[in-house]
Amino acid sequence: MTISPTRLVDPIHFFNARGLSVLSEDRIEHELELLQEENAKLQRKLRLAEMKLRNYERTK
Question: Fewer Cβ atoms within 10 A, N terminus or C terminus of the chain?
Answer without folding.
Answer: N
